[in-house]
Amino acid sequence: MEPGPGPGPGPGPGRWGPAACVLTGASRGFGRSLARLLAPRLGEGSLLVLLARSAAPLAELAAELRAGGSGLRVECLAADLGCEQGLRRAAAALREVLPAAPPGRLLLVNNAGSLGDVSKSFLDLTNPDEINSYFAFNVTSALCLTSTALQAFGKRPGSSRTVVNISSLCAVKPFKNWALYCSGKASRDMMFQVLALEEPDVRVLNYAPGPLDTDMQLLARTKTGDPVMRQYFQSLQESGQLIDCTVSAQKLVTLLEEDTFCSGAHVDFYDI
Questions:
Q1: How many CA atoms lie within 13 A of 255 on its CB side?
Q2: Beta bridge partners of 76
């Protein structure tokens, strides 16, 4: 897999020019922080599509970003990507807005995800409905939305297309009680590596944002069944080692601006 074309010009308001950006899991945590960093970099006439389950915080974020005065078009879509109806509605929305989006750049960030029931061990996971529901949200939706977005935007002369998967250390390392989360993240990493091989003109990045100070981390340190693992997550919080979402999101934006990563690579917050 070849590295990118090298660093572009320095950062500045709207410096990415007219672009189309799709961000899932945008209503809170890492996604919300990332949206706030991306919006000023999108040039006048750009399109930013925000997807999440919760309509109210999405609308609030969209209003904040529109007030930036950059001529940015912000579209909100509240949909549960874990259910077929919600996923189909999201895919239909992308097919509607992306063909007419600015031609210069497409950026799709697959950030939406869930932890699963980490109180359960491997041997407790016997309910196929629970397992299928987990993978529908965390794997199926990412694949369907990515393929739909790339098709809808299409191959345009002189345009760039970048797909980001928000990954995790758990994609490459097993954690007790985290069978669903680890296997979901590993599956997504491999899925996007295949995309990088099949579509060499699409830039693909698996970015692991590090242990973020989010609601998911709160679940990790209070609900994880294995006591040693639970204590490990508690110690991260107590020793101040959790990472602020904006700090990690800024590292991702820098990676995208420099554009020197190998397509399909897994890049961790601590590697940069």
A1: 30
A2: 50
Token representation of residue 27:
């209503």
Half-sphere exposure (CA, 13 Å, Cβ side) for 191? 23
Q: Structure tokens of 132? A: 């299928």
Q: Could you give the strand order of the β-sheet that contains 265-268, starting from the edge strand earlier in sequence?
A: 73-78, 47-52, 20-24, 105-110, 160-166, 202-208, 265-268
**Polymer length of the chain:** 272
d(CA 82, CA 197) in angstroms, rounded, equals 27
Per residue in 46-65, pLDDT (tens digit) is 999 999 999 999 999 999 99
Integer distance in angstroms from the first to the last C-alpha of the chain? 19
In sequence order, which residues have a C-beta less than 8 Å from that of residue 147 and are 6 or more positions away? none
Amino acid at the residue 94: L
Rg of the Cα trace of the chain? 18
- Burial zone of 36 (CB within 10 Å; 0-12 exposed, 13-18 middle, 19+ buried): middle
In terms of Cα–Cα distance, which of 118, 108, 171, 97 is closest to 141? 108
Residues 220-254 pLDDT 10s: 999 999 999 999 999 999 999 999 999 999 999 99
Q: How far apart (Å, rounded) are the C-alpha atoms in residues 75 and 47?
A: 7
Phi-psi bin for 29: left (phi > 0), alpha (psi -120 to 50), beta? left
Gap between the Cα atoms of 74 and 176, Å rounded: 40
Q: Look up residue 17 and give its amino acid.
A: G
